[in-house]
Amino acid sequence: MSSVLITGASKGIGRAVAVELAARGHRVVATARRPEALADLDVDQRLSLDVTDQDSVDRALAAAGEIDVLVSNAGETVRAPLESIPLDEVERLFRLNTLGALRVAQGVLPAMRERGSGHLVFVSSIQGRLVLPIIGGYGASKWALEAIAETLAIETGHFGVNVSIVQPGAVSSGGAAGAKVFLKDDDPYAPLYAALPLLRGETVTPEEVAAAVADTIDHPRPPLRVPVGAPAEKALRARKEAPEDEPFRLAEIDW
Fold first, then answer.
1. What secondary structure letter does DSSP report for 157?
2. What gap in Å lies between CA 14 and CA 75, rounded to an integer?
3. Predicted confidence (pLDDT) per residue in 134-186, tens digit
4. Which CATH superfamily groups domain 3-241?
5. Beta pairing partners, 229
């Protein structure tokens, strides 16, 4: 079984992944900014790790020991139209969702490369391949993450390192409900915000995403991209088939 380090394991997808991998017999190193939130997880190690802080990453990786698989899951979202989203919030999303993922990958890659084996699993989103209104800042950070992951797949593949990108659609993890919202009371984009549940479509559970992550880790030849659930597969297929000379819309909204 593999030794797996998970970022953002205190709740949602990350917690579900920790539970699933431990049940399958993997050695799980669960990490979070607040390690006390990991206390009830039955895993091998529970460590403090803030992906936006290099010293925190270095300390956690030193304590974790040899890592076969990184599940890069830590991330957040916000709700705001791009016309008015605070730019410091966009920067924060990129520091966490994109650069944070790369920072931890940089920490584990040298040992993987020297050993000739390893697996980087990035929890992305269908929004790493298409866009939704009012969630554009988050989507941009995931598009950038997927560019990083695909480049890593090319750069590290001949060293024996696999890279996988897990792409769920809407997940019933509570992350959307807890997202910061930046809209005024009379905001002209309010109808689009109200339409988000329709645009986001059917949800999958964190446990379904966790099973997809675990199956990818256990796969003898793990794929690069792993859509999770029929709604994600349908949305990504529609995006691939859509013409490139006009904006792609999952649904037409009268607003």
1. G
2. 10
3. 999 999 999 999 999 999 999 999 999 999 999 999 898 777 778 999 999 89
4. NAD(P)-binding Rossmann-like Domain (3.40.50.720)
5. none
Q: What is the mean pLDDT of residues 56-80?
A: 97
CA distance 190 to 180: 15
Q: DSSP label at 254?
A: -
> How many CB atoms are closer than 10 A to CB 209?
29
- Sign of the dihedral through C-alpha 233, 238, 239, 240: positive
DSSP one-letter string for 186-231: T-TTHHHHHTHHHHH-SEE-HHHHHHHHHHHHH-SS--SEEEEHHH
Rg of the chain (C-alpha set): 18
Q: Are 103 and 54 in contact (CB under 8 A)?
A: yes
User: How far is the CA of 186 from the CAs of 80, 106, 133, 183, in angstroms?
Assistant: 13, 44, 17, 8
Residues 73/6, Cβ–Cβ less than 8 Å = yes
Residues acting as catalytic residues? 138
